């Protein structure tokens, strides 16, 4: 029987970043991964470390994202020292492309509101076509302009996952692949976690199983109203340098290929791809970068985002099962540094970061009344 201080259910980007932060602080950590039968949202991630535009409804989410972005360089340096593998983190800023003057005006109004709500901490600039061309010389003529923010960047999600797993092991933690967790229950002052042919005892348990949290959360007095949302991605062959900085839907990897992604589909748990959707993504990419016309696409995939009803994260400690925590979001790369360096200490007993206060499931409790 395995015993540990913290059992992390879910070995994706969210669970692994939290586990890394806990293990680095000297806690005995075991990560329980479902294996390749899981939906693997982390392995389908686009790889943006993205801030601009986030938090318009809940500005503390902008602060949370900026906090993570500001800790990212340190995390990347740590993981390089441990694993010898660069996670290819770059922070050159990022642009959101607009295709009309009206779209530029709307974007500017949205970001001005966000900057005001964060007391000016979130900084951005609006670029016309010529200013954008200075950053991306091969930008298409159909692009009217863009918003730019210094906070944005990108990284390789697969190398990040590899680095986090190496970091967990480096600090004495265990990564244990196996079957799906079926039951979690209190037994005295600890938790018993059961999965096929295995039982784990842990003082505390963190649910970071993505969409799997829907079934696990109620077992420890929590609620995870999550739904899948499919995104599709295309990857080209390696090409000459075309993008010095990422856009919302395009980025060039360290190896030279171009990633294109631009779909949000309500298709249940179908993580496949559809040719019309892929064609729309490719056409939009060619509009932005005409040099991509004729470039060969070498791979496509679909992946399921882990979405709450409002798209914001869920971070919660159970009141009925002290020691049980819930952590879910669809920004596993952007928030990796915050999860490792700020969320993990809260789970270990420190005060919660101020920025996460709104992100409990209670925000979805809508009061109702019966008309007289």
Topology at a glance:
Elements: E1 2-9, H1 13-24, E2 29-33, E3 48-49, H2 59-83, E4 94-98, H3 101-117, E5 125-128, H4 129-135, E6 145-149, E7 153-154, H5 157-170, E8 174-177, E9 183-187, E10 190-195, E11 198-207, H6 213-216, E12 227-236, E13 250-252, E14 258-261, H7 275-288, E15 297-307, E16 314-317, E17 324-328, H8 336-347
Parallel strand pairs: 1-2, 1-11, 2-8, 11-17
Antiparallel strand pairs: 3-7, 4-6, 5-6, 9-10, 10-11, 12-14, 12-15, 13-14, 16-17
Helix pairs in contact: 1-5, 1-8, 2-5, 2-8
Shape: globular
- Count every helix, treating DSSP H or I runs of 4 or more residues as helices: 8
- Sheet with the most strands, sense and barrel status: 8 strands, mixed
Radius of gyration from the alpha-carbon trace, in angstroms: 21 Å
- String of helices and strands: EHEEHEHEHEEHEEEEHEEEHEEEH
Distance between the termini: 58 Å
Low-confidence stretches: none
Average pLDDT works out at: 94
Strand content: 25-35%
- Please give the share of residues in helix: 25-40%
Count of extended strands: 17
Structural class: alpha+beta
Short description:
This protein is 28% helix and 25% strand. By secondary structure, the protein is α+β, with helices and mostly antiparallel strands.
Walk me through this protein's architecture.
With 372 residues, this protein is an alpha+beta fold. The chain is built from eight helices and 17 strands. It has helices at 13-24, 59-83, 101-117, 129-135, 157-170, 213-216, 275-288, 336-347, and strands at residues 2-9, 29-33, 48-49, 94-98, 125-128, 145-149, 153-154, 174-177, 183-187, 190-195, 198-207, 227-236, 250-252, 258-261, 297-307, 314-317, 324-328. Strands 1, 2, 8, 9, 10, 11, 16 and 17 form an eight-stranded mixed beta sheet that branches. A four-stranded antiparallel beta sheet has the order 13-14-12-15, covered by helices on one side. The chain has a three-stranded antiparallel beta sheet with strand order 4-6-5. A hairpin with a 5-residue loop joins β13 (250-252) and β14. α2 (59-83) crosses α5 (157-170).
């Amino acid at each position: 029987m395995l015993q540990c201080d913290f059992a992390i259910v879910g070995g994706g980007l969210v669970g692994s970043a939290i586990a890394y932060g806990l293990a680095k602080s000297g806690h005995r950590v075991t990560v329980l991964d479902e294996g390749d039968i899981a939906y693997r949202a982390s392995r389908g991630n686009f790889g943006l470390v993205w801030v601009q535009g986030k938090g318009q409804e809940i500005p503390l989410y902008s602060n949370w994202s900026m906090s993570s972005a500001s800790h990212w360089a340190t995390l990347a340096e740590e993981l390089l020292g441990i694993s010898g593998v660069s996670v290819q983190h770059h922070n050159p800023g990022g642009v959101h492309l607009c295709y009309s003057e009206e779209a530029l005006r709307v974007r500017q109004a949205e970001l001005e509101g966000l900057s005001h709500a964060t007391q000016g901490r979130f900084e951005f600039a609006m670029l016309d076509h010529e200013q954008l061309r200075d950053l991306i010389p091969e930008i298409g003529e159909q692009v009217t302009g863009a918003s730019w923010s210094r906070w944005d960047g990108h990284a390789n999600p697969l190398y990040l996952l590899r680095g986090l797993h190496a970091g967990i092991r480096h600090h004495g933690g265990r990564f244990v692949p196996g079957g799906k967790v079926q039951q979690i229950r209190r037994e005295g002052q600890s938790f018993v976690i059961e999965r096929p042919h295995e039982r784990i005892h842990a003082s505390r348990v963190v649910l970071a199983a993505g969409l799997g949290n829907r079934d696990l959360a109620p077992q420890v007095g929590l609620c995870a109203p999550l739904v899948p949302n499919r995104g599709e991605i295309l990857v080209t062959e390696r090409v000459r340098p075309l993008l010095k900085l990422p856009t919302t839907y395009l980025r060039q990897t360290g190896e030279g290929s171009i990633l294109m992604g631009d779909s949000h589909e309500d298709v249940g748990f179908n993580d496949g791809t559809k040719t019309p959707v892929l064609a729309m993504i490719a056409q939009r990419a060619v509009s932005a970068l005409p040099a991509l016309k004729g470039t060969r696409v070498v791979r496509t995939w679909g992946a399921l985002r882990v979405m709450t009803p409002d798209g914001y994260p869920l971070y919660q400690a159970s009141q009925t099962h002290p020691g049980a925590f819930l952590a879910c979001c669809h920004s596993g790369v952007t928030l990796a540094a915050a999860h490792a360096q700020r969320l993990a200490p809260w789970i270990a007993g420190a005060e919660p970061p101020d920025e996460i206060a709104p992100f409990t499931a209670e925000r979805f409790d809508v009061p109702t009344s019966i008309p007289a």
